[in-house]
Specification:
By secondary structure, the chain is an alpha/beta fold. The chain contains ten helices and eight strands. Belongs to the 'GDXG' lipolytic enzyme family.
Length: 321
């Protein structure tokens, strides 16, 4: 379909910023400062929001715990991994979204402030994400969670990390309840039709994403399954999945290819391509009505996976799956 009018307005705002960047491309440090200054949104109140740390192979991994309700009940848990091309982002950038997810899904959310590239290339981010997930299973009493109901989620590069964690969990015998992959990076080839069609002018710039991907990959094999989950030889036995893609997104085709491979491997998977929108729409429900729709759909499926609700009406898939 054509660009949604809300998408067109969003892209018009981005064009002004892109024009400034074209004159003097910002450094990674400047990009981080700008991103960190862009989140003045109202923060919903929860019963508990606390900054903690989990031991990881590179040192303590900062996490932010969101608990939506008071009391001693052991809630299901969601490990959330932010996007930003493995180079940008942190706890503050997804704080409002994690609060919303915790409240709507009635689960404890652990947002992970994993190490960023280029200072810490692959597999540092995966190691940190796995350390937090494993800690939830190993010491659930510390977080007040039910170790039998742990899910992982992430957007963009965070979706890549969530898929990698799901692979590690399968191999370690740690049963995850679900993986929520929001326009995930699943490959390093950068050769799909969507990479070619939407690489410029649609929010997520292909050249910038390729640069970030190379900074994260470093000297690693580009086909390593924890870097490119689509290249994993076997996806059977990983956690059931929800995969969300956006029509006008360079990552669309690889996300949908991953959904197809999961289904072919016998993994229960729900996929929807949301029409007329671009990358980042899921995290911006205040700008995109479709973002709110996608959030509600994902949360409904997550609540079923975590044993909060018994079932949810399935929406028809939009686009190839």
């Amino acid at each position: 379909m054509a660009l949604h009018p809300q998408t067109a307005r969003f892209l018009e705002q981005l064009r002004g910023l892109a024009a400034l960047a074209a004159v003097e491309p910002p450094s990674i440090e400047e990009s981080r400062r700008v991103l960190d200054a862009e989140y003045p949104l109202e923060r919903p109140e929860l019963a508990r929001v606390e900054d903690l740390a989990v031991d990881g192979p590179g040192g303590p991994v900062p996490v932010r715990l969101y608990r939506p309700v008071p009391g001693a009940e052991r809630l299901p848990a969601l490990v959330y991994l932010h996007g930003g091309g493995w180079v940008l982002g942190g706890l503050e950038n997804v704080d409002v979204s994690c609060r919303d997810l915790a409240a709507a899904a009635r689960c404890t959310v652990l947002s992970v402030d994993y190490r960023l590239a280029p200072e810490h290339p692959f597999p540092a981010a995966v190691e940190d994400a796995w350390a937090v997930t494993e800690a939830l299973s190993r010491t659930p009493e510390r977080f007040g969670i039910d170790p039998a109901r742990i899910a992982v989620a992430g957007d963009s590069a965070g979706g890549n990390l969530a898929a990698a964690v799901a692979l590690l969990a399968r191999d370690a015998g740690l049963p995850l309840a679900h993986q929520l992959l929001v326009y995930p990076v699943t490959d390093t080839a950068r050769d799909t039709a969507s990479w070619g069609d939407y690489g410029s002018g649609y929010g997520l710039d292909a050249k910038e994403m390729a640069r970030f991907m190379d900074l994260y990959r470093g000297d690693a094999d580009p086909h390593h399954p924890l870097l490119a989950p689509l290249r994993a030889p076997d996806l059977s036995g990983v956690a059931p999945a929800t995969v969300i893609t956006a029509e006008y997104d360079i990552l669309r085709d690889e996300g949908e290819a991953y959904a197809r491979r999961l289904a072919a491997a016998g993994v229960p998977v729900e996929h929807r391509r949301f029409p007329g929108v671009v990358h980042s729409f899921f995290l911006l429900p205040e700008l995109f009505d479709t973002g709110a729709e996608a959030r509600t759909w994902a949360v409904d499926l997550l609540r079923v996976a975590l044993g909060i609700d018994r079932e949810v009406d399935r929406e028809p898939v939009s686009g190839p799956s």
